[in-house]
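quick q for whoever's on today - can somebody do inverse folding on this one?? i tried earlier but teh output was garbage lol. tokens:
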């Protein structure tokens, strides 16, 4: 039986409509949530993410402060900008787009962001709080994945989840969130990575598969149990001469074949992608509420 396609655009639109109402109410109290986005350099994928973030802020009424810096910006200048944004009362969230150019020290940058404005949830204080189950800003892509599951009535509690990929942005945090002792967690989680002996054997057991490797066709139909739920986090460019731009976007999952075995599956694009920005807006609004308590 062919899977139901999870419509990330619709879930994101529903959540953004909820946020728009919340932002309008805050405005009546004189509160305007503000998000500062910092982009260093000219990476085309990062530029398009940042433009999409700014547009999304505008759409729901969040003040967006756009900071585009040259690729050769020094660590000192970047830290000075972060310090200024930390002190700016109009700013509730600071997002430094990753990856940074190689000469910049990413850990120092993340440590420099005020944890109360760390709407990406990447500061070690927020990572630590999330791990021990305390309230913290949750990283946007993992949090978006959990919302997609919950809003499609997928039972996380007790599920066998296999996560493919161990990045700090997706694999590690989503595994941690799903294993928390909480109604949104309580799953049994396995994380597979480049040194896993037999990834396919793990994936075959999974009720929920989360693919975040950055490689097309990491998950093929023979690896998927009948009725599994498949979440594809990958965004990969593959050459396609039939497209004007010369490429098309695919995920980490062999979508056409896997959708014949799964019960639910996210498409690329239009699955996890729209949720990441939505959860960033969510964290920024939460931060504004907290700052004005
Ligand atoms: N690069 C890719 N994903 C993200 C993200 O969620 N946040 C930031 N800051 N950079 C990213």
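ok took a stab at it. sequence:
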């Amino acid at each position: 039986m062919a899977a139901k396609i999870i419509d990330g655009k619709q879930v994101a639109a529903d959540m953004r409509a909820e946020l728009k109402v919340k932002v309008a109410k805050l405005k009546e109290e004189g509160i305007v949530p503000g998000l500062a986005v910092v982009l260093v350099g000219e990476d085309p994928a990062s530029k398009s993410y940042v433009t999409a973030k700014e547009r999304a802020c505008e759409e729901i009424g969040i003040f967006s402060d756009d900071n585009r810096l040259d690729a050769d910006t020094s660590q000192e200048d970047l830290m000075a900008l972060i310090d200024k944004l930390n002190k700016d009362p109009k700013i509730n969230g600071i997002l430094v787009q990753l990856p940074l150019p190689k000469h910049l020290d990413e850990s120092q940058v993340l440590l420099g962001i005020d944890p109360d404005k760390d709407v990406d949830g990447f500061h070690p204080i927020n990572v630590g709080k999330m791990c021990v189950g305390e309230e913290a800003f949750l990283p946007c892509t993992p949090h978006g994945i959990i919302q997609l599951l919950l809003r499609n009535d997928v039972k996380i509690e007790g599920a066998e989840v296999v996560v493919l990929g161990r990045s700090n942005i997706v694999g590690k945090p989503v595994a941690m969130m799903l294993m928390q002792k909480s109604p949104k967690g309580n799953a049994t989680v396995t994380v597979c990575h480049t040194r896993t002996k037999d990834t396919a054997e793990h994936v075959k057991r999974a009720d929920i598969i989360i693919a975040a490797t950055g490689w097309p066709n990491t998950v093929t139909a023979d690896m998927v149990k009948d009725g599994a739920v498949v979440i594809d986090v990958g965004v990969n460019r593959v050459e396609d001469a039939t497209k004007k731009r010369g490429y098309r976007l695919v995920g980490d999952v062999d979508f056409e074949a896997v959708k014949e075995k799964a019960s639910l599956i996210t498409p690329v694009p239009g699955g996890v992608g729209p949720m990441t920005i939505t959860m960033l807006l969510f964290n920024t609004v939460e931060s504004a509420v907290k700052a004005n308590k």
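fwiw The domain at 140-272 is CATH 3.40.50.720 (Rossmann fold). also The CA atoms of residues 29 and 275 lie 28 Å apart. so keep that in mind when u check it
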